Amino acid sequence: MAEMSFGNRRPGRNVKSDDGIFANPLKFIEGCVMSRPEYESSRQNLVVDFPCRPPKMTAAVLSLYGPVDSLKVQQCDLPRLPMGKLRSTEVVVEVFCSSVNPIDWKMRKGTLSELYPLTLPTILGIDFSGRVVRAGEDSTVSVGDEVYGRQTLSRMRDVNGTYAEYVVVECADLALKPERLSFEEAAAVPQACLTAYAALGHIGKLIAKRRSKQKSVLILGGSGGVGTFAVQLAKRHFGCFVAASCSSANAGLLRDLGVDQVLDYRAPDFLGSVALARFDVVLDCVGGDDYWQAFRTSLATEGVYVTLVGSERGLGRDQHIDGARALGLRADYMLRQLSGQLGASENYH
Q: Does residue 209 register a pLDDT over 90?
């Protein structure tokens, strides 16, 4: 997936995304290898330092794949620094709140262990909100600032996730917390919102079309976590006509968020309900090739179909994705990307 961050990264640094499952073959093979909560005493000098640093921190540690009670709250070492010192753009945050994304519980259950193999025990968690306790000299925030952001999967490998009292993140992956948001609300924003922005703006190419006056977007699964952010971004940030699907129970929510046309996915004529429309982006938050087959004809000439799930609905929800299936997913993704680069008329991502 396209780069997702709160700010610009330093010149000369690699800004390609770490977060796409298939974005980098080496990372695909290596997986998301996170730091262990306990370390040898010979490495104690690598523990991050800051004023009033406690000797240990509390974290939710995953020792074995399994249900939610596989997470055990315990004392463990503070984050350790791979380079032995805090980088100039890194920030140490005291975490007040974190949230649970689908990728979090799928990794915890082990259904994605072939895609994201973990070194157990480990500390999961992507989203967070909290207070800065130490900041590198080139960071964009200061000690005492209230912030929110996300930890990248690759940095989980080097440091730890956000289900802990402290986390070390790049300053490009956080921002000052708006005063009107509570810490709980702020911690629910980063991953879902940045995913929606990357899907619409980068992959869906709406950033390049910002000045176009007539733009339209169809969001399948508009009342979910990513969907609700996508609706607001498409309407208020990119200035699009927005159609979105949901159940009848959530129709009022989508109208309140600004959706122009609400579609009931349980209606008998749902798959043909926008047959005459032409959308610049169809964002599929549900998955399934039946949606692709039904709505591919609703794409504009240079329209883009972006799926967050893939050809199988509910992928990774219950079933384990073994090695063969993981390689199949990667091959499917690469073939679709290759066809797009060769100028295929249907732009499927």
A: no
